Structure formats: structure tokens, C-alpha cells
């Protein structure tokens, strides 16, 4: 699959099979992230430990419920909602606080989800795991996040199971040309 096809095919997947992705796929996705544009240091953590995944999911869900944000609270109230969607692999992107840290981590995350699509895998860019790390200050050490780094965003990857929790995307009137 070429780059344009992978970009066109990529969709947020919110329902995963339990099957783990291969170490080769993990390495290729990390390489894609590391080839992204960057403006400062960042770190990628791969979480495949089921217990830790469940804990991050539970903590993010509670934080969404208590966030005061209408959208997040309505999502968290959906029956069976799991912020990590049962994905077997979670990539956490962390960086020191700085003006370009979120942009840098997000550039890497975008390349990672496109690489995952090219490999025939499902993926989703996530911001909600950051809530779990804000709610539980001990979680960063448990996940091996480097000292002084904060979670900026995350990506889940796995084999797509079904269609759940889709969000409407508006593409009309989002482009203008000045020639
Ligand atoms: C900044 C940002 C944060 C996002 N956070 C989440 C998230 O926490 N959970 C989620 O399911 N999707 C999240 N998304 C994915 C969007 O919901 C999704 O990309 C959008 O609805 C368009 O759908 P598509 O990715 O299938 O094209 C996020 C996207 C962005 C850009």
C-alpha cells in the first residue's frame, strides 16, 4: 500500500480483537514515528501489559466522567465504553513540557497511525490517556516514562474487530485557495 492509499484508508478504529500485533509491526510503527518532523525531544513507550492497559483504561474512564467536559462525559457514559477500545498495544508519546511538545508528539503519532494502516492494522489517535496520567501521578513511573516527561498523546493499534463509537467528520467548507 502506498502512502496516499494508507492516508486515504486510515480511519479511527474503536473496537479491537485481542490478538497481539507482531514485534516487527511495533518496530515499523516506531520507526514511522521517529521519522516524523520534530521540534524537540520526545519518547515513545509501548504498553502491551494487559494489567497496565486495563488500569490506564479504567483511570482514563473515571477521569473522563469527572472531567466536566460535556463530550468526554457523554462518551464515558456510553455502555461498555473503554477509552482504549480493547486494543492490545498502546503507544504513549511523552515529551518535556514546551511550546512545541504536543505538536511534535502529534506529528509522530500521525505517522504511526498511517504506518499502522499501511500494515493492515487498525489504529486510533487518543488524547484521553493523558487524563489517566494527570489523575494518577504514580502512573508515569509505572509505565517507565522518562523523568521530567509528560504524556502528550497516545496511539492504540491492533486488529480491527468491528465498527463502534464512530464520530462524524465534517469536510465541507474546510479548505480555501489563494492563487
Ligand atoms: C487532538 C485529537 C484528540 C483525539 N482524541 C481522541 C480520543 O481520545 N479518543 C478517540 O476515540 N478518538 C480521538 N481522536 C480521534 C478523532 O475522534 C477522529 O480522528 C475524528 O473523529 C475523525 O475520524 P477518523 O479518524 O476516523 O477520520 C482524537 C483526534 C485528535 C486530532
TrEMBL record:
Q: Where is the Nitroreductase domain?
A: 7-159
Q: Which residues cross the membrane?
A: none
User: What cofactor(s) does the depicted protein rely on?
Assistant: FMN
User: Which Gene3D superfamilies does this chain map to?
Assistant: NADH Oxidase
MF (Gene Ontology): coenzyme F420-1:gamma-L-glutamate ligase activity; oxidoreductase activity
- Which InterPro entries does UniProt cross-reference here? Nitroreductase (IPR029479), Nitroreductase-like (IPR000415)
> What sort of enzyme, by top EC class, is this?
ligase
State the UniProt keywords alphabetically. Flavoprotein, FMN, Ligase, Oxidoreductase
What Enzyme Commission number(s) appear in the record? 6.3.2.34
List, alphabetically, the PANTHER family matched.
NAD(P)H NITROREDUCTASE YDGI-RELATED, NITROREDUCTASE
Q: What does the similarity note say?
A: Belongs to the nitroreductase family.
Identification of the protein by name: Coenzyme F420:L-glutamate ligase
The organism is: Neomoorella humiferrea
